[in-house]
Amino acid sequence: MSVEMFRELRELIDTAENIIIAVVVAEGCENYKGKFLTDLEEQINSQQNPVHLHIICYREEPIMFPRPMTQAVYYFAPKNYTPLFYRQGIRAMDAPIDIVTAIKMWQGMKYSEAAYGADQKESYERTEQLVKDEDTSKFPSLFQQARNFAKEMWHAGKNAAVGLPVLVDAETAFNRFQTCQGCEFLTQDSFRCEKCGCFMKTKTQIATSSCPIGKWHAITQ
Question: Measuring CA to CA, which residue among 143, 144, 11, 3 is closest to residue 79?
């Protein structure tokens, strides 16, 4: 993306009176919108809240690293360059709901309050507190690596999509992990289950996951 593209977005954020929706799509969208952009615009036009839509057509040349996400939708509040949250791909197709969420956050709500119902909010906040407070130093280093990855997954994704995977506590995850380590269907080089195909360093951390042959079960929230 060029400096000019960033400048245009910053100027819009500085002067906007409503929520700003910045959409990053692949090169060529100036001449051909494509299905993603067409569907997103229909979603935005179907609702009643005024918003500012800003399209950024990402160009491959010069090559940038890291490459910006395309088919990505960022929601900004006026006068604030930090996105309220973002969506990517199919998750961007709930724009009317996301616009309401963005407005609520602009008015002072936290993301968990604005985006979730009571049950989802409770699970979200419970997981947030769990990953903040727990001490994994008593566990083996291999499990600590898996747990740290799960925490990073949570922190990186918590403002990206509705329906986040809720994590179990470290003790439960460790017990699951130990069970998998002793299972004949686990590949020891990649910690991948031959039955379900999942990478168990991650799967054992998620509350709604279960062993495909019943050695451990999902936890309902």
Answer: 11
Q: Residues 211, 170: contact at Cβ < 8 Å?
A: no
Domains of the chain: 3-115 (3.40.30.10), 118-203 (no CATH)
First to last CA, the chain: 42
How far apart, in whole angstroms, are the C-alpha atoms of residue 211 and residue 23? Answer: 39
Burial class (CB in 10 A: 0-12, 13-18, 19+), 144: middle
What tens digit of pLDDT does each residue of 154-211 get?
765 555 444 455 778 889 999 999 999 999 999 888 788 888 888 888 889 888 788 9
- Tokens 């997103």 belong to which residue? 40
pLDDT digits (tens, 9 = 90+) for 14-55: 999 999 999 988 755 666 677 888 899 999 999 999 999 998
CA-CA distance, 95 to 179, in Å (whole number)? 42
Please tell me which residue, 127 or 211, carries the higher pLDDT value. 211
Nearest CA to 75 out of 25, 126, 124, 18 is that of 18
